[in-house]
Amino acid sequence: MERKEIICSAYRMTGGNNFYDGMITCSTLSGKAVCRLVWDMNKAENDAYLEKALSGIPENFSGKLLEVPVGAGILTMPVYQTMPEADITCLDYSADMMGQAQEKADRQCDLPAGRCGGTSLCRRYL
Q1: 58: cis peptide before it, omega within 30°?
Q2: Helix 3-15 to helix 95-108 angle, to the nearest 10 degrees?
Q3: pTM of this prediction?
Q4: Is 31 in contact with 25 (CB distance < 8 Å)?
């Protein structure tokens, strides 16, 4: 298998299920295991870390924002809902992750398809 195919396969495996969301939010049994064993954090520490990571986005942000990689959008789509004036572009290497982010944007936002606040979901492939 070529390097490109190996990378694509790994992204498909991670992005094609809910493992990623559970891992990044420390909300599932397997996610909690990853948080504890790999990152040495419990749920409360993980939540504090994520809050700090997202705190760099000012309240009522109305400029341009580029999120790379968007992943599945589990962390940022809810934040983007609070920024209707922002011009946000989301990119990810994985088409599966972009698909999940698109679904979250469509489901969580009462706006035209693919728009969450000013979010434009774009796909980037190999």
Answers
A1: no
A2: 30
A3: 0.66
A4: yes
